[in-house]
C-alpha cells in the first residue's frame, strides 16, 4: 500500500522523497539538532534533522524537520511520538517554508484556543478590518502591552501574536502576587501592531479569559 499522487507530481519516487519521509515538529526552543535526533531516532533511520532559526537573531523558532529514509518510519514517528510535538508531514521543499510555518502555527493555535467550538474571532467586531478605517484616535507605536488575569505561556502567546506578520519579540512576565499575565509585544512596523491590537484586544485566550491589548511608547514618532 502506498499513497497515490496527482498526475502532475511526477514519479512515485519523487513524491515519496519529498512528501512522505520528512516530518515537521514543534519543539522546545532549547533543543539542539542532536536533541531532536535523540528524541526521534527510535522510530527509524534518520537521514538528517534541522532546526528552524530566526534569520536575524539565530535563535530557534521552536520548530524543526526530521527526514527519515522510509515513509513508514515517518508515519510511525507521527503516530507514536508525544502529542506535544504536533508532528505532521512536511510540505515539499519547493513550497514556501515560511508560509508553511505560518499556516502550521495558525492551525495549531486556532485548534488550541477554539477547543471544539470557539472560532478564532470571538467577537464579530474583531473579524472585519475595514481599509477605510484609517484614523486612530490614540497614540500608536510598534510596541504593545498585553494583560490577562491568567498567566501566559511564552510559546503559546508568541504563536498567537505571530499570526500577524512582523513579530520581533514577545516578552512574558508574571506578577508573583496576583498570578496575572503581562507581556510586551513588539512588531517591525506600526501597521502590524495596529492590526494585532485590532484583532486581539478582547480576544478570549484561553476561552473565558479576555485579553487587554494597548499601545506602549516605543520612542518613535507616533505621527508616522
TrEMBL record:
UniProt xrefs under SUPFAM superfamilies: RNA-binding domain, RBD
GO MF term list: RNA binding
Keywords in alphabetical order: Repeat, RNA-binding
Keyword Acyltransferase annotated: no
Domain RRM stretches: 21-95
InterPro entries xrefs: Nucleotide-bd_a/b_plait_sf (IPR012677), RBD_domain_sf (IPR035979), RBM45_RRM2 (IPR034206), RBM45_RRM3 (IPR034207), RRM_dom (IPR000504)
Pfam families tied to this protein: RRM_1
PROSITE patterns: RRM
Protein's recorded name: RBM45 protein
Lineage, broadest ranks: Eukaryota, Metazoa, Chordata, Craniata, Vertebrata
Encoding gene (name): Rbm45
Amino acid at each position: 500500500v502506498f499513497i497515490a499522487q496527482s498526475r502532475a507530481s511526477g514519479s512515485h519516487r519523487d513524491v515519496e522523497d519529498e512528501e512522505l519521509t520528512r516530518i515537521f515538529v514543534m519543539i522546545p526552543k532549547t533543543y539542539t539538532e542532536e536533541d531532536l535526533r535523540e528524541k526521534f531516532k527510535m522510530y527509524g533511520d534518520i537521514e538528517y534533522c534541522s532546526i528552524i532559526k530566526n534569520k536575524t537573531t539565530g535563535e530557534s523558532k521552536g520548530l524543526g524537520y526530521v527526514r527519515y529514509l522510509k515513509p513508514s518510519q515517518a508515519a510511525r514517528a507521527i503516530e507514536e511520538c508525544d502529542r506535544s510535538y504536533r508532528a505532521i508531514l512536511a510540505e515539499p521543499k519547493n513550497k514556501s517554508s515560511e508560509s508553511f510555518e505560518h499556516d502550521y502555527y495558525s492551525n495549531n493555535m486556532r485548534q488550541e484556543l477554539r477547543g471544539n467550538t470557539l472560532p478564532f474571532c470571538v467577537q464579530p467586531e474583531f473579524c472585519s478590518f475595514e481599509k477605510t478605517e484609517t484614523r486612530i484616535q490614540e497614540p500608536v507605536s510598534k510596541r504593545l502591552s498585553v494583560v490577562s488575569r491568567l498567566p501566559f505561556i511564552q510559546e503559546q502567546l508568541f504563536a498567537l501574536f505571530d499570526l500577524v506578520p512582523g513579530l520581533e519579540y514577545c516578552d512574558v512576565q508574571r506578577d508573583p502576587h496576583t498570578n496575572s499575565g503581562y507581556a510586551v509585544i513588539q512588531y517591525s512596523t506600526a501597521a502590524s501592531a495596529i492590526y494585532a491590537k485590532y484583532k486581539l484586544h478582547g480576544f478570549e485566550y484561553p476561552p473565558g479569559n479576555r485579553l487587554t491589548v494597548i499601545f506602549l511608547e516605543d520612542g518613535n514618532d507616533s505621527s508616522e
